[in-house]
Description:
The protein is an alpha/beta fold. It has helices at 49-57, 74-81, 95-100, 102-110, 123-129, 151-157, 173-185, 203-209, 224-233, 271-276, 294-307; strands spanning 70-72, 88-93, 119-120, 139-143, 163-167, 191-194, 218-221, 236-241, 247-248, 257-262, 279-282. The longest helix has 14 residues, at 294-307.
Amino acid sequence: MKRSGFPNQGGSRTGGNGPTSPRPSRDGGRPGATAPKAAPAKAPGERTRTQEARAESRPHGKKPAPKPGLLYGQHPVVAAWTNPERRCKTLMATPAGLDLMTEAFAQAKAAGVARPEPMVVEREALDRLLPAGAVHQGLVLDASPLPDLDVPDVVRACGETDMVVVLDQVTDPHNVGAILRSAAAFGAKAVIVQDRHAPEVTGVLAKTASGALEVVPLVRVTNLSRALTELQDGGFFCVGLAESGPKPLHGLDFPGRVAVVMGSEGDGLRRLTMERCDALAHLPTRPPIGSLNVSNAAAVALYEVARRR
Length: 309
């Protein structure tokens, strides 16, 4: 899959301490003090007592954090493998996992997309690479991140009646992944998040998105208020979803381009974000349930906007 309409885009920082004064000797430089004895030389491979103590203090059986570039599961791996914008480094697969890739192998080859030869491994080897309980279906792909995009890229690529999603500090990777999936299903052209208050693109997020990460760009911005202004300057009508919204979402008119703005899992939209929106609306839920999870609310809102396009 390819994120249609979005082009590819693509001195090091140094640091260190300045010169320091020599550390005074433990004897304080007293006249006649003897120099400390040198530590006996260690045999090759021998550890000091301090090293042994540190090794014993480390928790046993704790798995290292998974590598950020690892995608797993059939849908994310197939979607990445067939996406020309993805640079795939290593595909590790069980024999059963390779069977799930048959069509993807053929599609990438027909499109002339260069891909590495898969590595056939045991399931246990994949289990060790991923968080406990990860459902990898015999497939793990090490891939480079997708090209970064910004709001002007989104504005240029969108048509006159397209929609995007803006997330105000939604931090759960499962929620962001589910929103990406709904965005792909209902035709949204991008999901925009605030960089400092959004999850990293990990295998968990990609797995929840079920391949949508390759179709709908996840655009990270520094200032969400500025991003909303850029969308409005580009002809987007920004509607914020909030329980305090005076009208139900279906009671609003959507002129042309629409940006659906969703708040965080706990606090909803921040005051400044609400002030930047062109309108606020609520979903007409009924008691005793007064609100929906943000990913469910996004799916309902996107459906409502999409059916009126």
